[in-house]
Amino acid sequence: MFPWVFGFTWTTGNVIFLGIFYSVVVVIFTTFIIAARRTLTKIKAKHVDEIAWHSDFEDLPISAKTCRHVISGELDKRTCPNGFDCRVCDLHPKLVFANAISTKAQSGTSKNSQLMYGLNMPADRLYHRGHTWVKKEKDGTLSVGLDDFGRKVIGETEGVELPEIGSKLQVNGTGWYFKKADTKIRVLSPVEGNVIETGNGGKGFYLKVKP
Amino acid sequence: MDNQLIARGVKRTSFGKFMLWIIPWTIALMIGMYAIYLVLSKGLNQTNMDNRFAFGVWIFLDLSIIALGAGAFFTGFLLYILKKHELKAVINSAVVIGLICYSGAVLVLGVDVGQPLRAWFTFWHPNVHSMLAEVTFCITCYLTVLAIEYAPLVFKNRKLKEIPSFLVFEFQLHKVMPIFAGLGTFLSFFHQGSLGGLYGVLQGRPFAFREGVGIWPSTFFLFIISAAASGPSFILLTTWLVSKISRKRLVKDEVFRLLAKISGILLVFYVLLKSIDTLMWLNRTAPLRGVSAIAFFFYKPFSIWVLFTEIIVFGLIPALVFIIGSKRLKTGWLVLTATMVCCGILLNRFVMTIQTLALPTLPFDKFMLYTPSWQELATFLFVVAYGVLLYSFSFRYLRLFPQELELTNEKS
């Protein structure tokens, strides 16, 4: 098996056979080690939540991965290939732009408001699974608010507990709390960044974040 | 009792009923273990094999389950390399079946060699001119690949994936799976072929001896193609069986139809090549060796019906059924046809082992009947029980069929 083992000879058969074998073993071993190293890197970089989301997304049945643009009627059939992360989608900006032109042509406004199953879901923003939305402002900051579904589900609240200005938000971490009766309802942050302004809903957003 | 270990959204039978299923197979496993203990402690005289009849039911089992387990590498090749995404529905199950088949084969080989503790000699002093050295190396590497492919399924268990390192490691392994699929295809190609390549050197057995191209006899290619053809059929059959036993719909019908179509196309190719090979053997190879090929078919119980059954009944007919009817026929017919395909492969491997050795080669040789001893059959049963147990636990606690959840929701 090895040159120093008794009986080994440098014949063509030995060289080819053992050469292929060792190549295969090296590929198996190297690939395994690369996967292990990437694992350690991701854990150290605290990407576990993001990976958990992608892993759960893969397990969803096809019917649960329908693209939001199918629900809004823009497309007939599409399965989301991006884990519901519209930021990395090639098609999403094109559909938003096309919808903006179409809506402006129909209504004379550019509000981009869209009703989907009775819910107001403007197309000029991105939606998070925690029922928050994110809109990129011209100055590069991100406005964060609660979507129509979240607002209807939570209903009237007795107060809101917003993070302090300057505090750092993590994706899928706590964004803010609603107070209702004796309960605190936690709303997930859809983005990562520093809070630069709070809005309390009245300004059209709850948080303004600098990514 | 073990609901926390079962994947979310899917239903499994109660723990008590599951144990009722497991216990008989565990008893069979223990009987097999006792038989293995007898063989390893007292020697191969526990079997009915001898110097004259060196291949028995174990080698037949080895060749058969390695051929049927080819579904693992072939499904992986079709999914990860050729991007047939429909097969994502069965790839997990195919990996488990592959692992069962190859680990079972290695186990039986370990018993068959009589002194498994000396198996390392094969690696330390390989005879690179032997097809079997190549088989040993390939199977060892491929078993490692299968174990690595099985690991993500285990890490994705509902409880285990709560451990961050398991979750992330599973995700990373999944990303590099195409590399392992490619490696698996390469390794399987060679060891499936090398098992057939043996018949290029078996000159003392003119019934099985074949010529070919260079160092590769025709059986090298026939074994590869037959394994690739039977693999999808075996996956189809096992998926249907699991579906029936669990009383759940696990995959969509279109998956069965795709597996049937793939199996049918390869089977047509195989039947054509096998027919040409048989004609060449009848008219050229055997006469050149000074034997009358047709005389081999006068020995009862192995007469011409075996050849007819192998090529026509279990070869051509299922191939045509799959090619013509894969889109039209009901699932039941596809399953029956898949069973015929698997039987064809088992019959071929039987012919190349048991029948080959039974037939006389020298003028003073007699036709030899071989009946396996209870220890050999119990070892066979051990492998079957091991396979059923491993699959049962995998089906209960791991997510083997991604479409199950969707189909369960549709039904409700």
Provide a short characterization of the protein structure.
By secondary structure, chain A is of the alpha+beta class.
Helix coverage percent of chain A: 25-40%
Kindly name the structural category of chain B.
Answer: mainly alpha
**What is the CATH superfamily of the domain at 125-211 in chain A?**
RNA polymerase II/Efflux pump adaptor protein, barrel-sandwich hybrid domain
Q: Report on the biggest sheet of chain B.
A: 2 strands, antiparallel
SS elements, strand count of chain B: 2
Instruction: Specify the number of helices of chain B.
Output: 14
On the 0 to 100 scale, the average pLDDT of chain A is 84
Spatial arrangement of strands, main beta sheet of chain B: 1-2
Percent range for helical residues of chain B? 55-70%
Which terms would index this structure?
heterodimer; A: 211 residues; alpha+beta; 3-stranded antiparallel β-sheet; 5 helices; 11 strands; 35% helix; B: 412 residues; mainly alpha; Formate dehydrogenase/DMSO reductase fold; two-stranded antiparallel ribbon; 14 helices; 70% helix
What features would you describe in this structure?
The complex is a heterodimer of chains A (211) and B (412). Chain A is α+β, with helices and mostly antiparallel strands. Chain A is 35% helix and 21% strand. Chain A has five helices and eleven strands. Chain A has helices at 12-44, 48-59, 68-71, 91-107, 148-154, and strands at 115-116, 119-120, 126-127, 132-136, 142-146, 159-161, 168-169, 174-180, 183-188, 193-198, 207-210. The longest helix of chain A is centred in the N-terminal third of the chain and has 33 residues, at 12-44. Chain A starts with 11 loop residues before the first helix and ends with a strand. With 412 residues, chain B is mostly helical. Chain B has one domain: Up-down Bundle (Formate dehydrogenase/DMSO reductase fold). Chain B contains 14 helices and two strands, in the order ααααααααββαααααα. The longest helix of chain B is centred in the middle third of the chain and has 36 residues, at 253-288. The model of chain B has no long low-confidence stretch (mean pLDDT 90). Classes of the chains: A alpha+beta (211), B mainly alpha (412). The interface between A and B is large, with 34 and 37 residues.
